[in-house]
Design brief:
The protein contains 14 helices and 14 strands. By secondary structure, it is of the alpha/beta class. The strands form three sheets. A seven-stranded mixed beta sheet has the order 3-2-4-5-7-6-12, sandwiched between helices. It has a five-stranded mixed beta sheet with strand order 9-11-10-13-14, sandwiched between helices. Strands 1-8 form a two-stranded antiparallel ribbon.
């Protein structure tokens, strides 16, 4: 059996080449660390494939250029990091209102403000809840390695066209900068609806209009309700998640992106020590895998949510669990990155004291509070 080809690449560069392979032919962006490898790479590659690369004068200009390119029917992308993505939010609302497909990459850094340039997960709310105005949603993917930076980017362009919506790749400085081997799987374009709405010249046909202004009586409400039906369809069809050692787990760690990858190493060590710990990883942050988490919670398992922020996804986990199980939290904000040893201690502290090979978890309220206090204790400093 032939061995699959492997490449050694940074996450940012794998993402950029995946976009090229998926047919992206327009990119506009503005430099900001830690995502600069993306525009640097595309500045070289786009001319090679007869695409267009523009280093815009600002983040605001770049996202609006993507709006125009998408309206003309081109697969288009922009990328930035946290404060730069904040500047794009108004146009992201416009993209969503106009139902224009686009891929938006956020390689997160510490915040708020300019913050720092280390890895963070502080933009979960911004991506998942809709950072701009109005009742809109974006499909949000959270890669945890270079392979998924490749695979999910290709998927993002297809889903953007399929549902006519903006898709966010929510990475971070660590997964963007890390270099590791991956399989450059060949892009296969799926059957997608014809873009019979694009603005490509109306010679010989009726004119088309791409707009977000809906001033007729009840028009904007009807438009919003139609968008909500689309988002409901995503909740049925497009949820992605991954589980490790969940079936017999007394404690389930919930984490996304690079935090999940670090947490998995800690889970493996705890398993070797005889503790029944599992990991649940949402791959789509919207739509969130709430049904999958609710099914796990029905088995009376305890949860601990681990994030590189002050507590954001934990709110969606608690909503999904809906009081059926205890949900603890451990996070480090401001670009602080935990390691395996640190998470090992924190997860171990959350492990039910009465749990064992033949015991069910269960603790008094006082013990649970003591565990929470122990988890929230400062890690090193």
């Amino acid at each position: 059996m032939a061995k699959r080809k492997m490449l050694l690449s940074k996450g940012n560069e794998a993402l950029a080449e995946a976009a090229i392979q998926a047919g992206c032919r327009f990119y506009a962006g503005y430099p900001i660390t830690p995502q600069n490898e993306i525009p640097e790479y595309l500045a070289r590659r786009m001319p090679e494939v007869n695409g267009i690369f523009i280093q815009a004068e600002s983040e605001i200009a770049s996202i609006n250029m993507v709006y125009g390119a998408s309206a003309a029917g081109v697969r288009a992308m922009t990328s930035s990091s946290s404060p730069g993505v904040s500047l794009k939010q108004e146009a992201m609302s416009f993209l969503s209102g106009a139902e224009l497909p686009a891929v938006i990459v956020n390689i997160q850094r510490g915040g708020p403000g300019l913050g720092n340039i280390t890895a963070s997960q502080g933009d979960y709310f911004q991506a998942v809840k809709g950072g701009g105005h109005g009742d809109y949603k974006c499909l949000v993917y959270s890669p945890w390695n270079v392979q998924e930076m490749w695979d999910l980017t290709m998927r993002a362009f297809d889903k953007a066209d399929q549902y006519r919506m903006a898709v966010i790749i929510l990475g971070d400085g660590m997964v963007g900068q890390m270099m590791e081997p991956f399989h450059p799987t060949k892009y296969v374009r799926p059957a997608l609806p014809e873009k019979d709405w694009i603005l490509d010249g109306c010679k010989g046909r009726e004119p088309r209009v791409v707009r977000t202004l809906c001033m007729g009586p009840g028009e904007l409400e009807r438009h919003n309700l139609r968008l909500q039906k689309k988002y409901a369809l995503l909740r049925k069809r497009e949820v992605l998640s991954e589980a490790h050692d969940i079936e017999d787990a007394e404690l389930v760690v919930v984490a996304f992106g690079i935090a999940a990858r670090i947490a998995l190493s800690a889970v493996k060590v705890l398993r070797e020590e005889g503790r029944k710990v599992g990991l649940f990883r949402p791959v789509t942050l919207f739509p969130f895998p709430e049904k999958q988490l609710a099914a796990i919670a029905a088995r009376k398992k305890r949860f601990i949510v681990v994030e590189m922020n002050a507590g954001q996804m934990v709110e969606d986990v608690r909503l999904a669990v809906n009081g059926k199980s205890e949900v603890l939290f451990y996070g480090r904000p401001g670009g602080a990155v935990f390691n395996t040893e640190e998470l090992h201690r924190k997860i171990k502290a959350a492990y039910p004291r009465t749990a064992g090979p033949n015991k069910r978890s269960g603790q008094s309220k006082g013990t649970v509070d003591a565990v929470r206090n122990k988890i929230n204790k400062k890690p090193y400093h």
